[in-house]
Structure formats: C-alpha cells, structure tokens
C-alpha cells in the first residue's frame, strides 16, 4: 500500500489527442510520484470516458458540501461512451484508448488514494485539456473544484448542470425529501447560480415548515403536546408565521415549555451540554457570511466516546456555512465515553449550529 507520506501526481498520457480528429490511438498511463521522486504505477484503476449528456444526467448524485461521501455512487452511475466500457489500467499502469474526442471528459476514481494522503479521489477532467500529448491528473485538478472551473468556459453545459439540479430539487420538494432538496440547492449555489439557489432554499424552507405544521397539528389531535411544541418550533425557525407564533405562546402558557430537542432523557442533559460545548469550541464561524443561518448535524458516539459517523439532518443552504460546520465536527474525534444507562453500543445525537447576525461595531 502507498504510504501516507507520499505525494501524488496522477498522470494520464494521451498520445495524439491534441490537434487530432479523434481517430488516433491513445495510450493512457496512470502513475503516482513519491516525494523522493520514485514512480509507482497504479494497476486496476478504473478509467471512464463520458460525454456531457451523461455528466448532466448524473450530476445530482454529487453532494457538493460533503463530496467524498458521494464519489462512489456518482462514478458507478456514469455510463462510458460506446467503445470505452470496462477500462482498467494493467499491471504497468497503462490502459489503451482509441477514438478519444476533445469533447469527452476523462473520469478517474480510485478509493486507494482516500486511504493515503487525499480525502478526495475523483477527477472529472475535459479531454481537451491535454497538452503535449499528456493529460495530468494531480492535486491541481482533483475533486469538483476543477470541474466547476472547466464549466465556466462551457456556458451551455454549465446551464444544463444548473437546470438539472434545480429540476431535481423541485422534484425532491414535491416528494417532501427536504434533505435531498437542500443538497441539490447547495449544488445550484456551488455551480454559480446564486439567485436561483436562494429562491430554491426559500421554497424548501416554506414547504418544510408547512409539513412540520401539519405534523404538529396531528400531534395536538393525539394530545402529544410536547411533540407538537417541538414541531412548531422547527417550523417557526424555518419560515416564521404569526399564527404559529401565537400557537407556541398558547402552548407555553399551558405549561408546555421548550425542550432541549437533543433526544436524550432529562437525566443526561449534562452530557448533551458537554457535547455541545466541544462542538462550539471546535467551530469557527465564517466571518464572510451575513445574516442568520442554521443547520443540524447528527453525530454517532460509540460507547468509548469515539465519534464514528457524522451526517446532516438539516443543512443551512449555504455551502460555506455547511462546510465549516462539517469540518469542525469531523475535527472532534473523541469525547467523554457514554455514561451508564445511555444507549447501547452507540447513541445518535443532534447538534444545532447557528450563525447569528453581527451586532453593530
């Protein structure tokens, strides 16, 4: 296995691509260079050649906030251009191609890199970027950032990507899959359509708040007033409404107060405060953001205090905010072990993050 001290440069050599009319045979060589200058060739690395249509059809599978979690499903969904199926590098790190077009995209994914230096392990690179018969895949074009930049010189494709993301976000809203809708709205933002991203985010908030209010009304009918209060609170945080504000006040007047919303029995409230304090200390609020933003992250805590899994329950809709929170939570590897009587092998706990507007001065 390649050691974590190694620095990677993935090189695909495309003989005869530049200036050709896609009839020339192309030799693909995949290798990594270590800091000492040694070359290590990677065998059995999957290489796909896709067209723009396939990329657009699959773009909604990518999570632009936490992309590494979505690489595998995205790569597996890509269908190669006819004639480029089932391509892997051989024992020497080489794979033959024939008929590569400058309009194609070369997509390479190899999870082995994620086990070493880089968390990211996906390249989506236009074949037209080949120079001197070589297309270099390294840290300079790793991940989604380079693909986003490449789209700027392809405005039609960029519009198609954003249109697909918006359409799928609207479909997710209709299906009441608000977490998926927020992920897709973040994609719209990531690929440059800020105004449409804001509009979509507002509609998601409105629709989810409406759904929460409906759930709260059912809870009241079933005399589950604490549950109703919590649902009304969540709805009000997403999309303020005067009627909901009055209902919350009425419930509170009847002795139904706000809960911590952490899902833990009251006797373990001190443990939640410990977790919240650790997360707040790890999080540096992005200074460039304005306004009030909220998100909720679930963390899975093992019996020994190890944090083994992290996922969004509610995104803020702003990628900068979400990325800062995710980075902070992932930086906390372990906390105090679970107290006796709480959970079994593990417990899942929600942690809320709020970016508040800056005061004057």
Structure overview:
Helix 5 runs antiparallel to helix 6. The relative contact order is 0.09. The chain is globular and about 75 Å long. It contains ten helices and 13 strands. Strands 6-5-8-9 form a four-stranded antiparallel sheet. It has a three-stranded antiparallel sheet with strand order 12-11-13. Strands 1-10 form a two-stranded antiparallel ribbon. About 40% of the residues lie in helices and about 20% in strands. The chain folds into three domains: about 140 residues, no CATH class; about 100 residues, Serine Threonine Protein Phosphatase 5, Tetratricopeptide repeat, CATH 1.25.40; about 90 residues, Fusion Protein Consisting Of Minor Coat Protein, Glycine Rich Linker, Tola, And A His Tag, Chain: A, Domain 2 (2-Layer Sandwich).
Order of helices and strands: EEEEEHHEEEEEHHHHHHHEEHE
Query: What share of residues is helical?
Result: 25-40%
Unreliable stretches, pLDDT < 50, 5 or more residues?
1-8, 15-24
Based on CA atoms alone, the radius of gyration comes out at: 24 Å
Query: Which band does the percent of strand residues land in?
Result: 15-25%
Write down the domain tally: 3
Physical arrangement of strands within the biggest beta sheet:
6-5-8-9
Global outline: globular
Major β-sheet profile: 4 strands, antiparallel
What class do helices, strands and sheet pairing give? alpha+beta
Distance between the amino and carboxyl termini = 54 Å
- By DSSP, the count of extended strands is 13
Mean pLDDT: 81
Number of helices: 10
